[in-house]
Amino acid sequence: MQDWIALSDLTLPPNRPLQPLRRAVFICEVSLPLASTAVVLDWQPTGDTAQTFSIFLDATAGIILLHRLGNRVRRHVLPGPLPMDYGTARITYGWNQLADRWVMTFSRIGSGTELRATGRDPIMLDHNDLADLCRPDGTGSRHPALLWFGVTQGSEPPQRAPWIGLRTPIETARGAVAAGNLRPGDMVRTVDNGLQPVLRMHHLRLPSRGSFAPVILRAPFLGQGSDVLLGADQLVVLNGPEVEYMFGEEEVLVQADALTDGSIARRDSFRAAMDCVSIDLGLPELLLADGLQILSHSLTGEAPRAILHPYEAQQLVSLIGRRSRHGAA
């Protein structure tokens, strides 16, 4: 999982390097549709050196990124027209000083198409720039449709990842412990193999709007005692008569975002970014979170239950939601 080095509304740690980022990617997501012309982001800090980092979006002309550092001014253009249907758009701007190259892309998430423009002689941002750009009280202005933005030093935007909220209660040998307080070596209770040691705790800082928006599983629809906050990709166990009827299995695994029907679960876009964790036991195991079964993180091994495709989960969720709304346990 590629780390983010800056995210909107999160303060950067102190003592960061002052030199410019020679290779990085700026990513933002915007809620569509927009007016025909919009200033998505406009950052012009006060100081001895004139600086500007602004993104203009025009449905017909395309995207214009204006970057200024002192006497150097660059105007990068991705020509339109832009698809502006309802949904979420992702804009990326990557620069590489060694290759003397910049790349800008625009895509509507889920459409399968991407517009791209490239050029040379980019200007670089540094950590001080990012610290001011990301502060909610910084000198930049943001369009209301701007969901979040961030910067990574990878060549591609980081992918979504399965995770759980820091306060999620996980059953351990000493009782329920908040996921954020677990440490390597702690013994957690698994459904299939009893107590197992935590090998690694991946502490993540991720966007939590747009395509990265987390999911709240509402109690008590899936048997949990309280609402549980999860990443959209986190796998959750479903069981009951609907599962046996449709798939001939006692239990199946479903991604959390497939459960967002408004009753069982809903998207939570309250924060622009958040801290969370992923628990690694070496092999994938089912953990107990306040009565809910969730799959631990693992890069090896097969999942202990069948994993449903999103289209398979839709009808199942509808049936479970109908049963829950009629008061069945």
Quick overview of this protein structure:
The protein is mainly beta and 329 residues long.
Topology:
Layout: E1 6-7, E2 23-32, E3 37-43, E4 51-58, E5 62-69, E6 72-79, E7 87-96, E8 101-108, E9 115-119, H1 127-134, E10 140-142, E11 146-152, E12 164-165, E13 169-172, E14 175-178, E15 187-190, E16 194-197, E17 200-207, E18 215-217, E19 228-230, E20 235-239, H2 241-247, E21 251-255, E22 265-267, E23 273-280, E24 286-289, E25 292-295, H3 310-325
Structure report:
The chain has about 325 residues and is mainly beta. The chain is built from 3 helices and 25 strands. The chain has helices at about 125-135, 240-245, 310-325, and strands spanning about 5, 25-30, 35-45, 50-60, 60-70, 70-80, 85-95, 100-110, 115-120, 140, 145-150, 165, 170, 175-180, 185-190, 195, 200-205, 215, 230, 235-240, 250-255, 265, 275-280, 285-290, 290-295. The strands form 8 sheets. A 6-stranded antiparallel β-sheet has the order 1-11-2-7-8-9, covered by helices on one side. Strands 6-5-4-3-10 form a 5-stranded antiparallel β-sheet, covered by helices on one side. The relative contact order is 0.16.
